[in-house]
Known about the structure:
Helix content is 46%, strand content 17%. It is an alpha+beta fold. It has a single domain (2-124), classed as Rossmann fold. Strands 1-2-3 form a 3-stranded mixed sheet. The longest helix has 20 residues, at 105-124.
Amino acid sequence: MKYFRFFVIILILLTGLNCYSRDNANIILVVDHSTSMTDYFEEVKQHIIYNIIPLLNGGDYFFYIEFGTDASVNYSDEIDIFSFKKLEIQTTVKSYRPTHNYTDIGLALETMFSTLEQVHDLNEKGLRYN
Length: 130
């Protein structure tokens, strides 16, 4: 069930990213860091590093939300055209470990929607998220 939840969130957020020509995107990745993910966590990290991060283009914004007992945006930055930020994200993801005692998916969704709202409000004003 945990695995399924992870991939449902990924599919929702990455729809349309595997296009050759597209506008800049705001990508929000929401990942369960509870200890119930221990058996799957390395595989999830590898999937992020090798299958998701390569889809990022210069000008995209990338957000990584960790959740479990609580939820927080652990990483948020614009991807540079030289892809140095991709290496930074890969290094950061490699360091993550499942540490939370339980999973609060409701709090994760609240954090995701709050982040989406902030991004939307800034985009409406003609600004970018920083």
